[in-house]
């Protein structure tokens, strides 16, 4: 029997129920967003007792489907005030799925000042006090070690880091990955929601759990094979990402003039070689030691866009060293040393903060005079202050919108108070529509129009022109909402966008697992429904079309080298959600 | 001829026009709000080049009507994102009116990094570079001295203080009062708008200006006399405010259990005697020297609620030492020493920040662990850091909502990101409706329902009950919007609320000045129109009824001693604007 688990931390009540009928057949984002829209008062304070936090594996998680190990986490976001789904790799999703846990809901706030650990295993749910030694500034790497020691090295772990304990709106939820390193449900401050509930961690032990039941195993295996072939035969998902990681995009975006630099004043930099994926590959290869050029964030990943980045002595510094973080610190903040950026990435993982939000905030803080441009040492020190937190640490940990507010800037690159990532909307117009309109606040993963605009996968649009972008942004957001419900990594898109067989294989796997006969029309419908549910929440929380706008300066500051501005009219932008 | 002056700081263009037809017959808030709604894009960034700043005297300003010297300032607020009108005493309004200047509009942003001074005199408008010595942290007291030295001691002066130069969202606009001290257009951060336009100051020299023309002087004089009698014969406006200043309210609200204390956790304190108006009166009287128990913020004031508060040696510390500031620091932040609070008040005037917003932010910062409870020395030091600004100074200068964000608090007393002032909405329910619904963000002056709830002037409502409050809050907001358009001090309300002759005399003065025959119905209509215009702007800026809500904790945390919660339903709250 599939389980729907509720833990209420106000009275420490645990409820293990069958999945409510209305949530049957849903997984991942479809489930978390429906639940939040149903049960959370849209005008509640995100850090108050009435917000709820839900964890849900995707529909295919726990199976042998390639790249299906992503976990969705949902709540009302303390950063944006919107509904939020963010997802992560790691081992959590697969363990939940194997144990038949369709959702874990955390409600309420303890009346005392202690922090707690929720433990899930085959015997049910227990609530422990968090060990003193992992509280009050203890980094996530250490906390994972301590909890692995206490609960066993095989368990899955979710953590609110120091930033989450302090309820900073950039706090992420950090997850132990297969090797005991860190993966993050990064955006929107859900770690602060966890911290507000005094929930330091969740431990999951799937010892004794069987395999996820598959209705038609033969069909499933056949479809999984076709799907895997589609991923591996595509140059992006089969080669580029494995060789250079997501950081392969530095040179691509720089060439396209869409790499926002020096707080979104330029679209191209001279020092791209310092921070490119090609350089990262060469550095890792040259240094050897712990270094790995290619590595997956969860078991069953065949794309392997992650890597282990080592120091000069070959000792592991960080993994999951993503393009968006490297872009923000390297190009937007002008830090030219990849080793310094790697240490910052490690520090942000260790503190448990969204490395996109805080890194963009760093660049904005440089424009605001809070930090010197390009100064890696000053930035690493400032990031470490978030763990304390000092006043400067609190400002950066408050996110980009807070930095803009306390520095009196109008050049604050946020939508719905969430930082705009690594693709300038003036020269990659499609992605600008996603930033503006997604219910999540600025988020490239909510409809990655960079694909058809720049990579020419799944579309061929002129990134500098408006033509076709509205329809494309709409379809990308709909498709993404569906994919985010399957537990699939977003990058499977590259494999299936131009491969009808690959796409059909994805649907076939779902059908084979659940004994269904869904069509691509059903998948689109699912995506549309998810987005409508999310928009409904946001509307009731007070969001209107006036919030679906980019910061005004994009409209009148032209971006070199193409010297283009953001020129969609409000009416055009509003067309994205005309479905 | 009445003038409508526009200064565009992008190209330094000056335009002196007749008052556009649609603004004829409007003054004060009616004029500023209509103009902002007409000409400012509601989704613009408040600190970007497309925001505009407008200064307008009230309809009766510059005449001999008692208490008619208030000036309205309007813009889109960088604190709230709403339309904003805030008003101030000082000499500016009367000088503008005498010179026939119905409005000064400041637009654009200079392309260089210099700060400027706009000078208005009988020869027109000039734009000077600001003297170096008043820039970069120079306090307002000194800046007024320097500018008075340069332009003459008789001129009026408006200033963006250090906080305004740094574009902090709590920056006010500081005005020289008749004695060269400071009055403030306090709320909503309009000093930051001034700073964003690199406008350090405005100097007005009315040398050579005649009297404001009066169509029917006899009638005017007669009405003014009746009006003055109404004010002086009322115990609040004729006696209480003169004797004890607005700080008379400490004991009244404490007794009523509506004095929000220790960040809105209690409605009553034990140390009320330390900070009461009665104590202030006794201290000023005892210390002598520069001390003045009673004093007006502008010429022609007959209420005289201001005072000069001296130190132990009798030397002037501060004036305009208001209840709301003393409440926030004394009760909400628990600082028990009135002298310390006086130095903080002076420091905030000198830096040019809203003493309500920053003082409430101080109390919230104490809950957040940024400052120790009740520690006057630490707070004075922190306030002075706003002038630098240090990171801590920036956080406090960011306002209460920013403090709540970076401290991860759900107990953040703001509406539309503006701090809730000195009357707890759980035990003074009428004022809670004003906080929730006024287009200004939480603002007691937008519909001072404390009057009929606590003071029993103009109404007799049970402050702990909902009965009659919706209609009362509606009528108070409508009436206030009208009064804010006349240039009248808000406190004339006490004199006219229960005096039909007094109210008629106010209308008679307007009619006599302009040769009109307005009725009380027209006045109500004016108030309604102003509010509708403001709501229209806010709606287009993205505000909905979901923003017309108090922070959620008021709904479930009962306030001692009455142990009442905020229990208006959303539907009831929305009824306030049902007109």
Key descriptive features of the protein:
homodimer; 579 residues; alpha+beta; Aldehyde Ferredoxin Oxidoreductase,  A, domain 1; Aldehyde Ferredoxin Oxidoreductase Protein, subunit A, domain 3; Aldehyde Ferredoxin Oxidoreductase Protein, subunit A, domain 2; 6-stranded mixed beta sheet; 17 strands; iron (chains A, B)
Question: What does this protein structure show overall?
Answer:
2 copies of one chain form a homodimer. The first copy, chain A, has a 6-stranded mixed sheet, with helices on both faces. Chain A is an alpha+beta fold and 579 residues long. In chain A, β10 (173-176) and β11 (182-185) form a beta hairpin. In chain A, α12 packs parallel to α14 (376-384), α17 (429-437) crosses α19 and α19 crosses α22 (520-541). The mean pLDDT of chain A is 97. At the A-B interface, α5, α15 and α16 of A face α5, α15 and α16 of B.
Summarize the structure.
With 579 residues, chain A is an alpha+beta fold.
| Radius of gyration of chain A over all CA atoms, rounded | 22 Å
- What is the CATH T-level topology of the largest domain in chain A? Aldehyde Ferredoxin Oxidoreductase,  A, domain 1
Question: What is the number of independent domains of chain A?
Answer: 3
Largest sheet of chain A: 6 strands, mixed
Arrangement of strands in the largest sheet of chain A: 2-1-6-3-4-5
Instruction: Indicate the overall shape of chain A.
Output: globular
Helix content of chain A: 40-55%
CATH class of the largest domain in chain A: Alpha Beta
Oligomer: homodimer
| CATH homologous superfamily descriptor of the largest domain in chain A | Aldehyde ferredoxin oxidoreductase, N-terminal domain
Q: What share of the residues of chain A does DSSP label as strand, in percent?
A: 5-15%
Helical stretch count of chain A?
Answer: 24
The low-pLDDT segments of chain A are none
What integer is the average pLDDT of chain A?
97
Tell me the distance between the termini of chain A: 36 Å
Total strands of chain A: 17
Structural class of chain A: alpha+beta
* Most residues in contact: chain pair: A-B, 45 and 46 residues
